[in-house]
Write a sequence for this structure.
């Protein structure tokens, strides 16, 4: 198993400075199969709302439609900005992982965005099941 270092922060107070910082800034997680159908949801005590998952579902559907219509290949990630939060969706080998982040996330460059996507791809989903902060919905 390869360990991936968390992305480097853009500032000292960045919510992306370490794995623990990233986990503490996640308010919800949704896992979709490769057909874009939801498989699992996790909420936290700070945010028990799953309405954001519907928007991710719609974005994945739009992505599929655009990619097939335009004959596009490849998909790295989707970032959906809300007024106070950001949902980031990353395709992994087996599924799509959507993370609802506590605050808006702006990557300083493509390299930092790619590092974060790589961290999500190597993220151990079993950590969600073992971490009492994440509640199956």
């Amino acid at each position: 198993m390869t360990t991936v270092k968390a992305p480097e922060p853009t500032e000292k107070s960045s919510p992306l400075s370490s794995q623990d910082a990233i986990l503490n800034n996640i308010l919800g997680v949704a896992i979709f199969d490769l057909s874009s159908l939801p498989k699992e949801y996790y909420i936290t005590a700070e945010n028990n709302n799953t309405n954001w998952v519907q928007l991710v579902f719609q974005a994945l559907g739009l992505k599929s439609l655009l990619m097939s219509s335009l004959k596009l290949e490849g998909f790295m990630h989707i970032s959906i900005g809300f007024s106070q939060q950001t949902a980031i969706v990353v395709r992994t080998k087996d599924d799509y992982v959507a993370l609802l982040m506590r605050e808006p996330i702006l990557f300083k460059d493509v390299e930092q965005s790619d590092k974060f996507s790589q961290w999500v791809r190597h993220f151990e989903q079993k950590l969600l099941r073992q971490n009492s902060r994440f509640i199956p919905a």
